[in-house]
Amino acid sequence: MMTFEGFSITNRMRCEDASGFSHPLNSWSLSDWITATTGELGEAANIAKKLNRVRDGIPGNTQPEEELRANLKDELADVFIYLDLLAQSQGISLEQAVRDKFNATSRRIGCPIEC
Ligand SMILES: [Mg+2]
To answer: Which of 26, 41, 86, 99 has its CA 20 to 30 A from that of 33?
Structure first.
């Protein structure tokens, strides 16, 4: 089973390695990484727009719903992959950041559920 940390190591390796994208993390600015990440989120939002058409019976889609849902899955994965690289480029462990923030919110609302 893939751990969050293990994924991050592999993700960075593919990004930077000559057999991958040959793209050192520090060759992009924070702004570059944010742009890439939000670009993928925008792609997911465009699919959500098309799924809204399905929900509301509005014409215009060229793909069936099941294809849109498969594409949504891919775009959400792209968001996650870029978000992890963005965080790593800033020296942030996304795993630790998510855990810290999730647990802080649980404590703030008096919820015993923590990760
Ligand atoms: Mg994409």
So the answer is: 99
In a domain, 100, yes or no: yes
**Torsion angle, CA of 42/48/50/53, rounded to 10 degrees?**
-140
Question: Residues with Cβ within 5 Å of ion ligand 1?
Answer: 40, 43, 75, 78
What is the residue range of 59's domain?
Answer: 28-109
What are the pLDDT tens digits along the chain (115 aa)?
Answer: 889 999 999 999 999 999 999 999 999 999 999 999 999 999 999 999 999 999 999 999 999 999 999 999 999 999 999 999 999 999 999 999 999 999 999 999 999 999 9
Distance (Å) from CA 38 to ligand 1 centroid? 10
Residue 84 CA to ligand 1 center (angstroms) comes to 15
**In this structure, are residues 51 and 69 in contact, taking their beta carbons and an 8 Å threshold?**
yes
CA 44, CA 75: separation in Å to the nearest integer? 5
Whether 18 maps to a domain, the answer reads: no
Ligand 1 centroid distance, CA of 31 (Å): 18
Answer whether 0.90 is exceeded by the pTM: yes
